[in-house]
Amino acid sequence: MKDIWTKLQENHSTAEGRPIISLFDDPQRFDRFSVEADGLLLDFSKTSIDGAALDLLLELAEVRDVAGQRDAMFRGERINRSEDRAVLHTALRAGDDEPLVVDGEDVRPGIRKTLQAMEDFAGGIRSGRIATAGGAAFTDVVNIGIGGSDLGPVMAVRALSPYHNGPRCHFVSNVDGAQISDTLHKLDPRSTLVIIASKTFTTIETMTNAETAISWLKNALGDEADSHLAAVSTALDKTAGMGISSERVFGFADWVGGRYSLWGPVGLPIMLAIGPAEFHNLLAGARAMDTHFVTASAQGNMPVLMGLVGIWHRNICRYPTRAILPYDQRLAKLPAYLQQLDMESNGKRVSNGGDLLARGSGPVVWGEAGTNGQHAFYQLLHQGTEMIPAEFLVSSRSHEPSLQEHHDLLKANCLAQSEALMLGRSREQALEISAALGYTGEEQRAQAAYRTFPGNRPSMTLAYPLLTPYSLGQIIALYEHRVFVEGAIWGINSFDQWGVELGKELASALVPMIKGASAEGKDPSTISLIRKLSA
Ligand SMILES: O=P(O)(O)OC[C@H]1O[C@H](O)[C@H](O)[C@@H](O)[C@@H]1O
């Protein structure tokens, strides 16, 4: 019997060259190839997936037991096999009283306690009750962290700027002294709170930046610098070693992956910026998406369908990348956030069991806020030699009602792009345009070729009412679960990240060589580069 992958491949080959627009001969196309959940709409009708392909994809999800794997995650089973850990970021936003036992212990009371501690602290800083060494209210917060201890808060704080009513938040991630220097330069240590965020509290970039920031505080405040510090980590022994007092440390457990951690203490800058009540709305949005993911049938399940479209594009159409295109300037950091979420989770070449994968896994994820991207790389999307499935995000309403003209233009541009990608412009139309411009003969042919758009390029559009804490929570959780669905189908561990280790080890060994120690044993390229960089 043919396996589903073969059947999918055959479906694809048979339909090769069929215009996506022809699929709309089916008047039900939009309804069947879109899904709504709690105000969100995901339209994937502008893809080459037809009814038979969708049925096969749904069968694939069933054969791969996506639902069973999902339930195992929510139950707290140790699905992160290589690190022997549960995966329970969903528990941070569950708001649920039913016991959830991990390692013989109900984790719910601890989650509630930490959330309460975050609220007390954030509330205190925001009201001025927790004051600076000089007795004033903090005006600025600097979050020092990298990867999962940076990208979530950076993305969400920026996304939710209309809700900011707390201290200004700044972020330092890169070990490049330029970033911390540029950040601290514009701040006053006497009114600045520094949060050191690191799950492991060993990450060299964060530890180096933390030391620099602590010295900066100490130079201005002496022994009182401690009252301007807080930490977020799973390694409470290490935070104590840095001299951060325990009531300023917000812990979390190792069953929260770094790139899934903004729902707990790593989200402290978000709570400081928008306040505990709005932070709860962020959690509520994610919780609603969790409930949808757990309860909706596969046919109407947004993360499942989004994941299946991803599988179709990656494994059946063999497109190596996907573009994230938010028509929402406040989501400008979403592509960077999703790069870590998706590529660190699913950029794997071996299965959960340690065998080489038979087919491609996670694609390259990249993107930029629309409309800026239109004036940069969309040329390639429309007329380049690569096919790049595009994922548009756009809201019905904006936070700027007095600037309605802007939002109308934004929406029109978003829809124009998915339409142009799908429909393209035929050679006949292009010839007519060239003729109207006065070109004839060979020149008309060439001018028409420049103006021809092949079309038939797939896209999905995620539409949401307005970018609020609630809808942002829904959107992030949607993408988390989409990554989960794809990883479950590929049979990989989406929750480890061994691929980042080798570079870290080699960097530690190279530091003395950069400082002048012998580089003997290194390859000739590295030796020559050390010499050049030491000059
Ligand atoms: O939070 P930390 O322990 O400092 O880790 C920060 C980041 O660095 C690591 O190298 C991982 O690749 C990321 O998954 C992680 O988010």
TrEMBL record:
InterPro entries: G6P_Isomerase (IPR001672), G6P_Isomerase_C (IPR023096), Phosphoglucose_isomerase_CS (IPR018189), SIS_dom_sf (IPR046348), SIS_PGI_1 (IPR035476), SIS_PGI_2 (IPR035482). Gene3D superfamilies: 1.10.1390.10, Glucose-6-phosphate isomerase like protein, domain 1. Keywords: Cytoplasm, Gluconeogenesis, Glycolysis, Isomerase. Pathway: Carbohydrate degradation; glycolysis; D-glyceraldehyde 3-phosphate and glycerone phosphate from D-glucose: step 2/4; Carbohydrate biosynthesis; gluconeogenesis. Pfam families: PGI. The active site is at residues 344, 375, 504. It catalyses: alpha-D-glucose 6-phosphate = beta-D-fructose 6-phosphate. Its main location: cytoplasm. GO terms for biological process: gluconeogenesis; glucose 6-phosphate metabolic process; glycolytic process. It comes from the Bacteria. GO terms for cellular component: cytosol. One of its GO terms (molecular function) is monosaccharide binding. The keyword Cytoplasm applies. Its EC number is 5.3.1.9. It is found in: Cytoplasm. CDD domains: SIS_PGI_1 (cd05015), SIS_PGI_2 (cd05016). Belongs to the GPI family. Catalyzes the reversible isomerization of glucose-6-phosphate to fructose-6-phosphate. This is Glucose-6-phosphate isomerase. The gene is pgi.
